[in-house]
Amino acid sequence: MKHLFNLLILLLVSVTTLFGQKDSEIIKKSLKVENNDSEFWFCLCNINGTIEVESYSGSTIEIELDKQVFARDNGDVKKGMEELDLIVSEGENYAKVIMRSPNHVIEEKDDPLDCGWNWNGNRRGPDYRYRLDFKVRIPDGISVKVSTVNNGDVDIKNAGGNIYAGNVNGDITLDGVRGNTKANTVNGIIEISYDSMPDEFGSFKTINGNIVMRAPGKSNASYNFQTQYGEVFSDFDFDAKLSPKVVQTSGRRGEAKYKISSSNGYQVGKGGPSFQFETMNGDIRLKKKK
Q: pLDDT for 69-117, tens place per residue?
């Protein structure tokens, strides 16, 4: 047992020493917003690190970035601090911040809010690791599209506009939101708390994680659930089961083909927004907001 304990200590020391050098800096940016409404979008594209967004009663987007670089030696750390950068682009109805690194090739997209990277396989350079942690304050009412991939969660609070939130290996938490919403992750939990129901839709998808939504007690809406290895729990009493939909698909020789989809849809009250929930290894829970 003593030899095993010593081996574990040695492994820990080796990993710590491998990237034992570190540097960091705080970067602040302020972006002007012309129209504080949902037609204006703020977009943030990250790869490694957290994203925290909170609305306030101002007219500028305030960004604070904690940039950290880790490497074996100070030369590689210095190179990483120089190479990692942010690109800020602004249009009539949007402001976008995207991370720039020699390890990634940014793809130009027709939609200026798309986050597009390809891995740069030809990259031969210093060996360093990094993380970028963002704290952002946005004017209440504008829409938000943010995403990260590794080593961080996405948290959005009190946003009044539309919200698109993406992650891969982390959770997504949306608290006190009011707009149309999409949230997708792969390995993580999705939690949503609505101050008031969106006008049109909410869409939530994860593969390995639960989905929990809290909504005002008296809220008309339709709900559709898909979970392969989980269960659905609800504080709401459903008034009706929705009928299956007829879906058109492509048949042979171009002729129209139709199929009847299975229905896991339910209605509370009449009308209201439409919600879609999808997970493979997780439960779905609807709760009344207290």
A: 999 999 999 999 998 888 999 998 999 999 888 877 777 778 888 887 7
Q: Give the Cα separation of 176 and 69 in Å (integer).
A: 34
Amino acid, single-letter form, for residue 143: S
According to DSSP, the residues that pair with 283 across neighbouring strands are: none
DSSP 8-state code for residue 269: S
Q: How far apart, in Å, are the Cα atoms of 168 and each of 69, 184, 208?
A: 21, 8, 10
HSE-CB of 55 using CA atoms within 13 angstroms: 26
Query: Six-digit token pair at 175?
Result: 């608290």
Q: Residue 221: which residues within 8 A CB-CB, separation 6 or more?
A: 197, 215, 267, 268, 269, 272, 273, 274, 275
Say what the alpha-carbon torsion angle 114, 119, 123, 124 is, to the nearest 10 degrees: 130
Collapsing DSSP states into helix, strand and coil, what is residue 75? Answer: helix
Q: What's the half-sphere exposure (Cβ side, CA atoms, 13 Å) at 258?
A: 4
d(CA 97, CA 214): 30
DSSP type of residue 6: H
* Beta-bridge mates of residue 70: 22, 129
Facing residues of 279 across strands?
A: 227
Q: Provide the whole-model pTM.
A: 0.87
Neighbours of 25 (CB within 10 A): 10
Phi and psi (nearest 5°) for 147?
A: -155, 150
